[in-house]
Automatic annotation (TrEMBL):
Positions of region (Disordered): 45-64
Protein name: YtxH domain-containing protein
Organism from which the protein derives: Siminovitchia acidinfaciens
Species classification: Bacteria, Bacillati, Bacillota, Bacilli, Bacillales
């Protein structure tokens, strides 16, 4: 509980500084430009999720038996659900 009381003045100070900085139109414009740049860089970094790769959609749900890493991942996922079910059944007995 002591940490929250110590953090409140810093939070208020930060809000005050941000408010003072954003009080002028020029600084608000600079801040909006920076937000847009960061947004575009994040979209470039993580890619556009609205247009997924067509190859991934074709492959989804049907792993290629010759793709060992993908088959291993699917097998591990199946094993997880079996282990979970077994633990639930054993814990009720």
């Amino acid at each position: 509980m002591g940490k929250t009381r110590k953090m409140n003045p810093y939070l208020l100070l930060g809000l005050g500084v941000a408010g003072a900085f954003l009080s002028s139109k020029e600084n608000r414009d600079k801040a909006m430009e920076m937000v847009e740049k960061v947004k575009h860089k994040a979209m470039d970094l993580w890619g556009n999720t609205s247009n997924p790769d067509p190859d991934l959609l074709e492959k989804a749900g049907r792993p290629d038996p010759h793709d060992l890493e993908d088959a291993k991942m699917v097998g591990e996922g199946a094993q997880y659900s079996v282990d979970y079910y077994n633990k639930q059944v054993q814990s009720t007995k």
